[in-house]
Amino acid sequence: MRPFWSGTISFGLVTVPVALFSATRSRGTALRMVAPDEAPVQRRYVCSKDEKPLDDDDIVRGYEIEKGKFVVVSDDELEAVEPKKSREIDLRLFVDRDSIDPIYFDRGYFLVPSGGTNKAYRLLAEVMEKKKFAGIATFVMRAKEYLVAITAEDGILRAETLRFRDEVRSPEDAGLPHKTKVMPAEVRKFETQIAHRSKKLDLRELMDDYEERLEKLAHTKEKKHQDIVRVEKPEKEEPEDGEVVDLLAVLSKSLGGSGRKPARKAPARSRAKRTVAKKK
Amino acid sequence: MAARAIWKGVIKAGTVSVPVKLYSAVTDRTVHFRLLHKTDKQPVKQKLVSADSGEPIEYAEVRKAFPIARGRMVVLEDEELETLKPKDSRDITVTRFVDPKDVDSRFYDRAYFLGPDGDSKAYFAAAEALAKKEKEGIVKWVMRDRQYVGALRAEDGYLVLITMRHADEIIDASALQPPAGRPLQKKELEMAEQLLTALHGEFDPNDYKDEYRARVMDLVEAKAKGHKPKIVKFRPKPSKDEKLDDVLAASLAKVKRAS
Question: What are the boundaries of each domain within chain B?
Answer without folding.
Answer: 7-28+85-169, 186-258
